[in-house]
User: Which sequence fits this backbone?
């Protein structure tokens, strides 16, 4: 495992599954009141160019549950790359804190931050990928479908965005099926898609018909049509994604017990209807809860590898 977690492409199948195992253990220990505290005396710096509910609360709560502390830094606090270079910020933080999570507009900023930091840097979201979200999603799937996901078929309906890119990386390593249904022009990163298809031939597919994407799926996933930073495209995207809403009619093409997944926040009546989001097959709040446990597992694993000198 590398010093950092910037994308799931940096992890092996065994490492992804080990993080899921650790997350499940930490979840069970927390519920039993016996959670470990391996980060006593350690501090997590949280750099947020984009605001967040789930990412901020789960990282702050997670590091506290593990015995550590956190420092929250908005763009106005440090003006990453403007008031001071990314490299200098990385070198300063490396002298003061033990871990960094960064939620940035540009993935290149994360890469530069990690390159110059001597401490672990975790991707809390970038324009290219969202690895912590998909790790939490995998934990959720395992809870509902069992630990072996190799026979599972995941359908994603919507934009080929950063979450899709992380799903592709996971599918290429873990070996489950993944089908994206998106409008033309909204395909995922071409290099990430090609790598996933090479690693998992025949089981990673992009189509432009949402019904075809969800047919026979074990889980149907969606996300907002317009992400932060794309607000000027809102009306065009609403037109382009017409017909790609996850609703009862679309879900009828999936397996009868197919799970409904969404990384949140959700726009009810746009990418998903309220009855589906709130229905009995929805696991969206399980996913949100599991962000806490998956990220705790990542922090513990990265910190332990740094302490042992094994991080690459």
Assistant:
């Amino acid at each position: 495992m590398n010093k950092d977690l910037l994308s799931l492409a940096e992890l092996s199948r065994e490492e992804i599954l080990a993080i899921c195992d650790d997350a499940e253990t930490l979840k069970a220990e927390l519920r039993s009141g016996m959670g470990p505290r391996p980060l006593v005396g350690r501090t997590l710096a949280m750099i947020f160019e984009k605001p967040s509910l789930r990412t901020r609360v789960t990282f702050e709560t997670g590091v506290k549950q593990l015995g550590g502390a956190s420092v929250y830094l908005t763009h106005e606090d440090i003006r990453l790359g403007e008031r001071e270079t990314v490299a200098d910020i990385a070198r300063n933080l490396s002298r003061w804190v033990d871990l960094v999570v960064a939620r940035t507009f540009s993935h290149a900023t994360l890469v530069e931050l990690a390159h110059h930091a001597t401490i672990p840097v975790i991707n809390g979201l970038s324009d290219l990928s969202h690895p912590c979200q998909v790790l939490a999603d995998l934990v959720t799937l395992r809870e509902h479908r069992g630990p072996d996901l190799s026979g599972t078929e995941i359908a994603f309906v919507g934009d080929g965005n950063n979450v899709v890119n992380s799903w592709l990386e996971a599918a290429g390593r873990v070996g489950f099926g993944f089908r994206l249904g998106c409008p033309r022009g909204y395909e995922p990163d071409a290099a990430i898609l090609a790598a996933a298809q090479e690693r998992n031939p025949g089981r990673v597919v992009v189509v432009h018909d949402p019904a075809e994407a969800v047919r026979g799926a074990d889980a149907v996933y969606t996300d907002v049509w317009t992400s932060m930073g794309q607000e000027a495209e809102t009306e065009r995207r609403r037109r382009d994604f017409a017909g790609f809403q996850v609703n009862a009619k679309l879900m009828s093409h999936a397996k009868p017990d197919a799970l409904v997944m969404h990384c949140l926040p959700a726009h009810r009546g746009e990418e998903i209807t309220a009855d589906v989001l709130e229905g009995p097959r929805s696991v969206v709040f399980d996913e949100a809860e599991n962000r806490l446990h998956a990220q705790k597992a990542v922090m513990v694993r990265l910190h332990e590898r740094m302490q042992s000198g094994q991080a690459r």
User: Anything to note?
Assistant: The mean pLDDT is 96. Residues 131-288 form a domain with the Rossmann fold fold (CATH 3.40.50.1370).
